[in-house]
Amino acid sequence: MPRIAQADVDEVKSRTNIADIVGERVSLKSAGVGSLKGLCPFHDEKSPSFHVRPQVGYYHCFGCGASGDVYSFLREMDHVSFTEAVERLAARVGYTLHYEDGGPAPETSGRSRLYAANTAAAEFFRSQLLSPEAESARAFLGQRGFDAGAAAHFGVGYAPRGWDGMLKALSAQGFTRDELTAAGLVSAGQRGVYDRFRGRVVWPIRDVTGQTIGFGARKLYDDDQGPKYLNTPETPIYKKAQVLYGLDLAKRDISRGDPKRVVVVEGYTDVMACHLAGVTTAIATCGTAFGAEHIKLLRRVMGDDSAAGEVVFTFDGDEAGQKAALRAFAEDDRFNAQTFVAVAPDGLDPCDLRLLRGDQAVRGLMSTKVPMFEFVIDRKIASFDLGTAEGRVGALRAAAPIVAEIRDPLLRPEYERILARRLGMDPTDVHAEVRRHERRRRDGTPASREQSSTPVASAPQTPGDAPSAAPVVTLATLPRTGDAPLERDALMGALQYGHQLDADLLQRAVSTPFAVPALDAVRDAIAQVADRQRPGWALQAVDAVREPYRGLAGELLMAAFPARDEQGARASATDLCRRLIVRGLQREKSELLGAIQRLPADSDGARAIARRLVEIDAERQRYIES
Fold this sequence. Notes:
Blueprint: H1 6-15, H2 18-23, E1 29-30, E2 36-38, E3 50-53, E4 58-61, E5 67-68, H3 70-78, H4 82-93, H5 110-128, H6 135-143, H7 148-154, E6 157-159, H8 165-171, H9 177-182, E7 186-189, E8 192-195, E9 200-206, E10 212-219, E11 229-231, E12 244-245, H10 247-256, E13 261-265, H11 268-277, E14 282-285, H12 292-302, E15 310-314, H13 319-330, E16 338-342, H14 350-357, H15 359-364, E17 370-371, H16 372-381, H17 389-404, H18 411-423, H19 427-444, H20 484-497, H21 503-509, H22 517-528, H23 537-544, H24 550-558, H25 566-596, H26 604-625
Helix pairs in contact: 1-4, 11-14, 13-16, 16-17, 16-18, 17-18, 17-19, 18-19, 20-22, 20-25, 21-25, 22-23, 23-24, 25-26
Catalytic activity: ssDNA + n NTP = ssDNA/pppN(pN)n-1 hybrid + (n-1) diphosphate
EC number: 2.7.7.101
Subunit structure: Monomer. Interacts with DnaB.
C-alpha cells in the first residue's frame, strides 16, 4: 500500500493545532505559560493531570503517563490507523496529500467508511423530510413545536416507508452492502437486505466532535410493528453507553458556563425543546440508562476539577422516572460536580412543558432543582406513614443508608438534620442510625466503588523469575538536592523554549554531562538534535531518549515552567543555560587546579593550565554579568 510522503505528514501536523483537536474531547484551561490542562481521556480521574502544549504539539498525562502528538491522540481516542489519522487531519485543514512513488491514495480504512456511510445516510434522511411522503413526519414535528429551522439545526430527517430506498441511494454512492451492514444502516432478513429505518422520524446521533455515528428513530404509523424508538445497533463506531445525544451542540456552552451546568433529559425531543428554549446544555442518553461511561464523557467536557459544576437530571414524576433517578444516584459519587434533580409541574417532560407553558417555563425548570440526595431521601420515605412510630422508624431505616453514602464530612451532618426534620425525630437517633449503616458499608465493602487510578505494584520476583524492568523515573522521583533542580529546570526550559533561545548558548549548555543519570539521558538527546529551530524538534528529542527515561523527557516537555509570561520564560531559560555553562566552567577550573598542583611550576604544561585558568575566569565573569 502506498505510504503518505513524510513531508506531508510533517506539514499536516504543523498546520494542526493540537489544542483544537484535544479540545473537542477535553475541556482545557490554562495551566501556566504555553500549557493547557484538563481531565485525562485515557483514564478516570477527578483532578486534571492531562497537559497539552500547543506550541510543541504534544500532550502528556502525569497520572497515567499517556503522551504523544496529535496523531497518537487520534489513534488512541478513535482507534484509527496512522494513515487514517493523517488523512482525517489533512481533510480538516484542506491539505492535499501525496503518496510515495506517485501512487494513488490507498483505500479509506473500514472505520472511515462507516463514518462516511453514516454521514451519507444523514444527508439522505434530511432530504427525504422535504418529500410528499414525509408529511406525517413534518406534522409530528410541528405538533411538538419544531419548525423547519429547528429540524435543520438538529439534522432531523425522515426514513421512507419503502423496503430499500436508502440502500439503493447509498449503493449508488459506492457503499457496499457489507459496509452498510457494519454501520447498522441495513439488516438482513429472509427477503434479503433491507433498510433498518423505515417510515420513521430520524435523528442523527453524533459524537462529541460532531461526526454522525448512528441514528435514533421514532415510528409514525400504526402498522409499524417495531418498537416506538429504534436506535442503531452497536457498531465499531457507535457504543450507546459512551454516547450522549446533543453533546456536540452543548459542549461549548457547558465548558463556558459559570457555573458549568449539564442538563440531562430523557429523549431527543426534550433535548430539542431545551435548546430552543435557551437551555443549551441539555443532552440525553441514547436508548440506555445514564451510566459510568457517560459520566466520564461529561466530566472531560466539564473539566470539573472543582465542586462548582452542576449536573441537573430531569425526570418524569412517575414510577419509571423515580427509578431512573435512583439509577443515576447510584453513580453520583463519580461526579465532582454537584448533582440535582428537577421535576416539572404535573410531571411534564421538557418538550410538553414548552408546548403548554412556553420557553420561560423550560428555563424556569432549573430554579426548581433540588439536590440529588434530598430527592432520593424524599422518595425513600414517601411510602411510609410518618404519623406512626413504626412508619417513622421504617423511613429512617430506609433513608439512613442514603445519608451514609455522603462522603463530605461537612455535608452529611446537614442531611442528617434534614432527615430528622422530615421524620420529626431526634437528630441524635438519626445520627446513630446513619453511623451504624456507615460502619456496615465500610466493613462489608473493602474497596471503594471507584477504583484508584494508581497502578498496583508488581509482586517481588523470586530468584527464578525473569529480570524485572528498570524502574520508571518521573519528575516526582528525581532527587531534590544537589545539581538536580538546576538540571531539571534547565531541561524544561530547553525543551519548551529551545527554539527561541540562542542556538550556540543552548548547544554549549547541553554539551557537558549532567550529574543525575536520568536527566543526563535527556540532555544527550537534546544535544544530538541538529536543528532546534525546526518545528517538532522537541518531540524528536523526546523520542530519541533511551528507556526507561523517555517518559521523564515527556514530563519535562509538559511540566509547568516557572514564569509569568512568554518573555519571562525565555529570560529564565536563557539564565538557566548560562548557569549550566558557569557550572561547567567551575568544574573545569577545579580539575585544572588539581592538575597544576601535580606539575612543576616552570613546566610548559603548568603554564598552559595557568593561561586556561585565566580564560575560564574571564569567561565565567562574562556569563555571570550577561
